[in-house]
Recover the amino acids of this structure.
């Protein structure tokens, strides 16, 4: 096992990684910006280094300098920031440090959505109809759409997290959206490449947790339902998916394993798919080459610690459990508690005057803030993840209602009232929902 770990992230995910590392006897190093000096994860690490202004978490040299200063043996990037930056992964290893993540080549291959689609298709993973090369102009996109069939989705080839995409119902709308997406992609990702693929108006978003083991095997650990989204951003997830039958699960997990094997995957990753709820067909969407925000619900239903598995695999060890012996037990739900208003989901940062986390059977809170801290507009709005588990979905929903009612936050705006609404929504309670559920709740 590695002896010391620098966590190149902040907030709840840094705190969560530090918790597991401490349990394993690994010395931890936190890095923080000037704005984050008072956050809980900074105090909980064995050592902390101020790396500068707000966006310093994206400064690879500052992070590496902190690792050298503290004699860290390894770097865990969490999610976001530098986590899917292949050049950073290479720089970490070039510095003689252990990279707690997938091979840089796998990050590169999956970082471009067009390349990823082509690789997956070649590996036998189902891919929706779409373009195999970047669209050089709106005219080229319109010509491709005529073959694919409307409606279509215009997507940035680079980037991720649901950013840089728009649907189009006809050629005129496609031409307009092409220009918007291309400009956004160029501005946000430094790459204006755009692809066009079939758009499914009614679809579910289901993903599979994969783990590339130290011995070269890739295993698929189960699926998560991620269809509760606003602006293509996930808000709530559950495992297992209410839409997935045992037969469909076998196909999903088999395809995800093929996807990982196609790129020689190691460590934790996620294969995201779109599921047609009517026909039961699914299509590869993208691979996230990192730990997902929603990983705790997989942990809850399998009784494992994915961060421990990451650290063990990076150390050349077995993951800490026998993948062949794992069995999904019960149900789990994650609610992303964000600093945003619960109606329009606009950011609402501020000083935290009161922070009271719920407790109870099957309740877990991964939080990045506490009373006396401040949620700033410089970062993502995520404050905490409320994770609720139990023997079945009905029990989990009842526990989640109590947990939401018992979560008290005063200061920043928060979306807890939205979750009160969601947990009583007939469509959500039925389990027969899709990615349009929030739009229907707000109509």
């Amino acid at each position: 096992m590695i002896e010391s770990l620098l966590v190149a992230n902040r907030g709840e995910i840094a705190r969560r990684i530090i918790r597991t590392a401490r349990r394993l006897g690994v010395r931890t190093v936190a890095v923080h910006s000037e704005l984050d000096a008072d956050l809980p994860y900074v105090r909980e690490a064995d050592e902390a280094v101020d790396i500068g202004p707000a966006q310093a978490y994206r400064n690879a040299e500052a992070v590496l300098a902190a690792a050298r200063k503290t004699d860290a043996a390894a770097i865990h990037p969490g999610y976001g920031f530098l986590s899917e930056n292949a050049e950073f992964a290479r720089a970490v290893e070039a510095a003689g440090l252990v990279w707690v993540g997938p091979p840089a080549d796998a990050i590169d291959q999956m970082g471009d959505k067009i390349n990823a689609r082509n690789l997956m298709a070649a590996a036998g993973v189902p891919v929706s109809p779409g373009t195999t090369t970047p669209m050089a102009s709106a005219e080229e996109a319109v010509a491709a759409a005529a073959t694919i069939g409307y409606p279509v989705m215009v997507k940035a080839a680079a980037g991720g997290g649901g950013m840089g995409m728009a649907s189009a119902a006809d050629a005129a709308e496609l031409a307009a959206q092409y220009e918007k997406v291309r400009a956004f992609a160029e501005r946000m990702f430094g790459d204006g490449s755009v692809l066009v693929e079939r758009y499914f108006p009614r679809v579910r978003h289901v993903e599979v947790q994969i783990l590339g083991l130290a011995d070269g095997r890739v295993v698929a650990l189960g699926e998560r339902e991620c269809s509760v989204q606003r602006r293509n951003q996930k808000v709530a997830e559950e495992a297992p998916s209410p839409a997935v039958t045992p037969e469909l699960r076998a196909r999903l997990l088999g395809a995800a394993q093929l996807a990982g094997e196609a790129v020689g995957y190691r460590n934790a990753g996620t294969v995201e798919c779109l599921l047609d709820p009517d026909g039961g067909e699914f299509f590869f969407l993208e691979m996230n080459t990192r730990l997902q925000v929603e990983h705790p619900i997989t942990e809850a239903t399998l009784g494992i610690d994915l961060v421990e598995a990451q650290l063990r695999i990076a150390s050349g060890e077995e993951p800490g459990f026998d993948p062949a012996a794992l069995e999904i037990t019960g149900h789990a739900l994650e609610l992303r508690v964000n600093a945003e208003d619960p109606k329009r989901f606009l950011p609402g940062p501020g000083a935290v005057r009161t922070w009271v986390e719920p407790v109870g059977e099957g309740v877990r809170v991964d939080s990045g803030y506490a009373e006396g801290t401040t949620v700033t507009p410089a970062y993502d709005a995520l404050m905490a993840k409320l994770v609720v588990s139990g023997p079945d979905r009905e029990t989990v929903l009842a526990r989640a209602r109590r947990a939401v009612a018992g979560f008290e936050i005063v200061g920043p705006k928060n979306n807890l009232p939205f979750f009160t609404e969601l947990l009583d929504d007939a469509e959500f309670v039925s389990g027969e929902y899709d990615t349009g559920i929030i739009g229907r709740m707000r109509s």
